[in-house]
Hints:
The protein is mainly α.
Amino acid sequence: VLLAGCVKPPDVAPLAASIAERPVRVAPLLSGTLFGEEIARAAAASPQVARSDAGVREAKAALLAEQAGVFPDLSVGLRLPTGGASLVPAVTLTQLLFDGGAQSARERAAEATILGQQAGQLDAASQALLEAVAAWADVAATTRLLDAAEVTLDELEWVTAQIEERQDAGAGSSADVLT
């Protein structure tokens, strides 16, 4: 157990570098446009992104709490000595000298948790961007379908009017009406 403190803790730098290399962004073609700005704003306002931001802050707070474990612990109180009739003030100072690497391992675990939360944050932002763009694409496709349906309706109304004119003039047949 004593030699466990001599073991080098795992290096989280490669994981941190891989997360830093994955920025979430709107494509350069869209970034300067009003559409790109609106998509980015919608993604930033996403509840999933807000939840992942909170997770990152929580993980950072946990790391700070773990790092506080290496500071001395000062306790102040009153103590009743055995056989004594009065209280005696007591001050206790405790300092961790060696823990077999447990503190370092807890700090690395907290750092890894932060990195995991940051990766989750990137995923949430990417998902929010994808959902916003997909919603826009659905609206655009539906708008085009509606426009095509309106053109088709106009054409059918025109054809129907032509058939009715021929029918009223006596030049039409029942085949015109049925087609």
